[in-house]
Structures
1.
Amino acid sequence: MSPARPREPRVVIIGAGVAGITALHVFREQGFTDVTVLEKGSDVGGVWHWNRYPGLTCDVPSQLYQFGFAPKPDWSHVWADGRQIQRYHRRVVDDLGLDRFIRTSTEVVAARWYEEDAAWELTTACDETLHADAVVFATGVLHHPSVPSIPGLEDFDGEVVHTARWPDGLATAGRRVAVLGTGSTGVQVVSALVRDAASVTHYVRSPQWILWAPMGVRQLVVVGSVLRRFPTAHRALYAALQWGSGILADITTRPSWRRRAVQAYARLSLRLQVRDPDLRAQLTPADEPLCKRQVVSGTYYRAIQQDHAELVTAPIAEVTPGGIRTADGVERPADVIVLATGFQAHNYMLPMEIVGRDGRTLDDEWRHGPRAYRMTAIPGFPNAFTVLGPNSPTGSISLQHTAELTARYIAHWLGLLRDGRISSVEVTEEATSDFNAEVADAMGPTVWNTGCNSWYFHSGGAIDLFPFDRARLAELLAEPDRSHFRVR
Ligand code: NAP
């Protein structure tokens, strides 16, 4: 391997969602010129590009769910719908001149590290080969749809659709729709479909707590105008909401009166909105509020109590050509089956074939579940980083904030590559194990660890979340500790 010399590093970012757009912006801002984003979808936006189901809304207030570097004061609603959020991502990319660095409809299927060249070779689905000095995986966590294996599903006569692959023009008005799954997605899609479907049957395996919030409330036009006119006020609001998300992180990670208050509010949301004791019993979860990713809705309980809506908690036995039969022998007809059954979370960049130093594969490295050092570096995979990777704060601290801190952390290493001070960097196994032990230890008092089964748990049984607060996040992603890395 030739000694390092100053040169512009070739950086490839995989994925153009929240994480990828953030990384691209941060790297460009820091003067890196040879940056390419490869995105398998036909547009930027990540989850907001892929998810187009009826009722899609972000349950994080839009004044918080935005990039710190691309403020948008004028949302139509306090909680904006998916289409508006997707348009925002597109506009950010256009306005910041990022589009020319992004190649859409380009799927990376393999990445291999060549130690002698200190470079990655990437292969796309079209068999194109690209080379990079550093690769940044910004592939997201909720990305690969999870399709349940239910007997008969393939022989259903009507349409079967996963919410994350909603086809344009799918007709549901006047038809009998069956919805499976009651996470954030299932609750949103049921609330929307019930408006014009002939019937909606909601199959619920494990009910979830649903916090009431006025999700449909509009943002006054004057609010947007004032915030646009006074950017300082907008920055202050953004900072206040960031601080608020820190409180949520605190509520989930440590038992406190605040946690108990939110849990009491979740129970009250159910009690006040569902008067029928039998239905309420069916809708009452066995676990504690907040244990799973909290579902928020202002409409679901009303929707499920409509005459043409039905809640079914009997287990599904099979799908028949004309509908769904439950274990109690009842068959309910359906024209469309909607799978709101979630994602194979924690795949991150898998099933890409990723081969690091000495032929180590990521499949093998992550056979007991995904793990990384400080959410971003993986031993055995030099010059490779994740943004919003394992143990990133999902559902508590702002994603955009985390992505930006992580991108700046990575940019530190890219700067050393550019200056010719290093040719490769790899986190040590020891530092990664220490970090993961610290994370596992801190999971103890979290609400996610109170006995529920959720997508927060990865295949190895550990909770793939961030059990610390915002201050610790900033500390972890401040200037890298060189002693935790092997640099060449
Ligand atoms: P999810 O939370 O993983 O929920 C999947 C649902 O499908 C669960 O109710 C699960 O039941 C059910 N399910 C899975 N397999 C099943 C089967 N074979 N038979 C019957 N039911 C089955 O997925 P999601 O609702 O798509 O949400 C995933 C995450 O996306 C959320 O937690 C959130 O982070 C994000 N999201 C956010 C928003 C937002 O507004 N910001 C909106 C949508 C999604 P069990 O619980 O019994 O397994």
2.
Amino acid sequence: MAEVAVENVTKRFGTLKALDNVTIDFPDGGFFGLLGPSGSGKTTLLRTIAGFIFTDDGTIRIGSKSVEQIPVEKREIGMMFQNYALFPNMSVADNVGFGLRVRKVSLAEERRRVGEALELVQLGQHSNRKPHQLSGGQRQRVALARAIVTNPRVLLLDEPLSALDKSLRVDMQIELKRIQREIGITTIFVTHDQEEALTLSDKIGILRAGRMVQAGPPREVYNNPTDVFTASFLGEANILEGAVDGNSLRLTDGDAIPIPKGLKTGATFAVRPENISITTEEPTERDTPKIQARLKQRVFAGAMATCILDRNGSTFKVISRDRDLPQLPEGGPVWLSWEPEHTITIPN
Ligand code: ATP
């Protein structure tokens, strides 16, 4: 296993900087998610670590070694992509053992290691089947077994679960995490799915237009976004424009909301939709300050519901357990409040 470190890496395609001075490290044995909008450089970063793409500038280290001059096959990396393309005419066992045969491992050794890898992904019973005799989730497991059978130092996964339907994807997320923990392999994966990244990762990195805008443990990044982009990209955020006035934040439309002590003007503020309470009862003098909005739409999604609100022309969102929401008349006035500590400060 190895730590992977990316230091000041730049990659240009013509005039486009697909990676712009990116620095991030992936400590030994962790599970790391790379997130960002389409075209932000996630796959380029992963392929740069793998060695399919050479950097224009900067250093990539695996373990203590700088690997820029080391070709893909010598980097000891296991990979699994969205289009994992198993060989259709080969059995599951032969698919998994392919990388070992290329490395001229003995037949007995190949059998032993393929057996172990298939047990790990719980496909020991299906080693003689052909890929078309497996479900989508099982094929994904074969691809994973194939990626880890060579005992790589690092596992790179590019959108590994995006072809699966929602419930299978959730099962596979749990499976992937179990397997990663069991073998303790440093794993870096690219995903579009923020929930997936938050669920699986020990650390996430968020790319935007080739730059690593923020990296850290998911909870830390979620609770302390360093810019408005990250606050809105990772989960949802209601952005509040205003100025600090004593223990309140005076919004630009005049309303005041309580904030934690010590907040400074010169920042933008935000509140997550799930932290807001909503009521139809007009607040009294003695209530904590509430801000008024108009309910535009209530979107039912099983256990949870999203209320889309209009507040002086801008949209505000509240997410709550459906059963905790009062009967809210669409188009009617509602009052919103939240605990002071749920006002997030975003440094400008
Ligand atoms: P997505 O989520 O859509 O897969 P991504 O974040 O993985 O996107 P990349 O595939 O890394 O993004 O691409 C980053 C940028 O580099 C994009 O603007 C893309 O068009 C460009 N790019 C990637 N590969 C090449 C290439 N071989 N030649 C030219 N431009 C490229």
3.
Amino acid sequence: MDKIKMKVPLVEMDGDEMTRIIWKLIKDILLEPYIDLKTEYYDLGLEYRDKTNDQVTVDSANAIKKYGVGVKCATITPNADRVKEYNLKQMWKSPNGTIRAILDGTVFRAPLIVSSIKPFVSTWVKPITIARHAYGDVYRDVEYRVEGAGKAELVFTAENGEVTKHTIHNFDGAGVLLGMHNLDKSIESFARACFNYALDVKQDLWFATKDTISKKYDHTFKDIFQDIYDKEYKSKFEAANIEYFYTLIDDAVARVIRSEGGYVWACKNYDGDVMSDMVATAFGSLAMMTSVLVSPEGYYEFEAAHGTVQRHYYQHLKGQETSTNSMATLFAWTGALKKRGEMDGIKELVDFADKLEKASLLTIEEGVMTKDLAQLSEVKNKKVVNTEQFLKEINDRLVKLL
Ligand code: NAP
Ligand code: MG
């Protein structure tokens, strides 16, 4: 078989620790034997980020704006421990935060469902897709540590010089402060991305905030969604026989647990961060959660929803065998290749990515899986494999499908 040719490069963003190991294995075993892989490579591994003063992260996001599609490996978000471990110049910001701030948009996270693994929530029979707003709030905040008594104020200076002040709190001792923001423009594109996605997959859209407590901030989100829905989407939703449903975030959580799934759940940035981990874990494993950022201009960044699996990496460094699940990282690649194929009109690339996804799901359904899934699966005659074996088992099935 001739290798599949690509026209436009995919923006490839390498990462850290165990996922960096998996990244290379996926390319070696499942991609490069079949595709003349054309990528523009950015090394987002922490060492190189530090070396370039994080410029490489900014460059990679701009490359996505240039080419349209990127695929990203999990990366370390440094904390104090990491600054020491990697001897960093400074505690660099979260690469995901930086990239999302440049691209804007919404992150859609959906679980990969296999018949052999039952969700912890027994009523969930259909996937729940979390749509996470990827701009602002606590991820772009300004924080201040109050060391003693004093008055904290919220001050806004308009372009014309007019000043508005609100007292936040009169401190009589130490405490903490946080200032955060969002933009109507970003919320509007979040809303449209969610309405479009729901129409695409023909599923209801749920949205929830805490507008009863946050009467300006969260209420703005609620109002913008409702306004855009009424003006632009109501009739389309009715024609598709799907619903837009708004409720309070605590009510939403209760309803989600009692539901049977099968809808898109739009969440503000922080809610989406937390809820996607909960939903992913309840569906089985963080390693079975796919994630794609869709920008308002129609740029795509595919990634895994989990982190760099640090514990497994340290085992790997000690020469011990690992059994790390590569499904989410693999689906980041297939999602990106498929999107590239669709955009460039390369049908073979789309077909290949489809078959690779099928082969990987089939591998698990036939009982071949990594440790994380083996603990959950009800299949008899399970075969627990190591990180590399799992990819080779997928390849065996891929060869047959091709
Ligand atoms: P993590 O990498 O998501 O892993 C947490 C635990 O979940 C693992 O220890 C493992 O459990 C299990 N797990 C996650 N992915 C797995 C996989 N593919 N296969 C098998 N098990 C898996 O989170 P972390 O260890 O707390 O964070 C490590 C680093 O990742 C941090 O530096 C953080 O900044 C970064 N991070 C990056 C991203 C991103 O780039 N998108 C997202 C989150 C975190 P067991 O150890 O019990 O086997
Ligand atoms: Mg998270």
4.
Amino acid sequence: MTSTNSNISKITKIAVLTSGGDSPGMNAAIRSVVRSCAYYKISCFGVKQGYQGLIEGKINPLGPRSVNNIINKGGTILKSARSNEFRTKEGREKAFHNLQKQGIEALVVIGGDGSFTGGLIFQEEFEISVIGIPGTIDNDIFGTSHTLGYDTALNTVVEAVDKIRDTAISHNRLFFVEVMGRDAGHIALNTGIGAGAEEILIPEEDMGLERLLESLKRSKKSGKLSSIVMVAEGDKIGKNVFELAEYIEENLPDYEVRVSVLGHMQRGGAPTCFDRVLASRMGLKAVEALRDGISANMVGINCGKMILTPLKKAIKGKSKIDTELVRVSEIMRL
Ligand code: F6P
């Protein structure tokens, strides 16, 4: 189902912005929106600093040559921000006024569900069409199997954990590695399998401290001298990864325990080929959707095909973890 806006078939000007946390592949998506617009002879504008820039009128034309050499760059050339002012009607009025001044009829929002919520309200209140492109490393958006930057973050994490493993082995240590994922365990689950973690702790499943302790005791008994426990930032056991590690060290004295929090290094760096291709496809699909008169939808990928999901659904729906992966991880730790 797609919602359509009557004035859209004659779209001549589209603006693009990045909002919320940055993710690798955002630049490639900006490039794609700009070049797809050029292909369809639509004028394209870049908004600096997300919705805040929209309110402050930081809107400038972008042509195919303004996006040279950015496909390989992490971060976002448009910069990103979280705008409190855009949460107010007055803020959104200012933003709309600035778009109107330049005759812009449509907006491509590259960001996460918070950014889509803002975009949805905006297009309900004003005569503006909005299409979302999911950009977040967390992969926690309903309506797409992959968000922009997720694949890159997975590879960054696996590379980092491979290095941590060298020290773990050399010193017979147990490492707790915290990865991003405020509400979702996708990064922890996939990198946990990819990096050969002993245990994977994710917000979707509360394993409990005692079961974790028992499991680590068993693995020690089975002859493992070192181990990696992958912990998603939003995991519910204990207050935080340090508290968790302390508890295990007190109750499993055979192990020397260390904690490594990977943090924002997971959000940076050159996008993988997968993310670059995904970004190029999503940007084109976003522009084509707007040309077709579609608004209030998000572009996504499912089984290799580009799809659209109403923003309302994308915001409300939950991207579930793959329980098959949980089973694989359990067997792989034997
Ligand atoms: O992009 C989402 C996310 O990666 C979360 O997993 C994490 O909690 C958050 O970003 C951190 O955001 P900030 O940069 O605002 O600290």
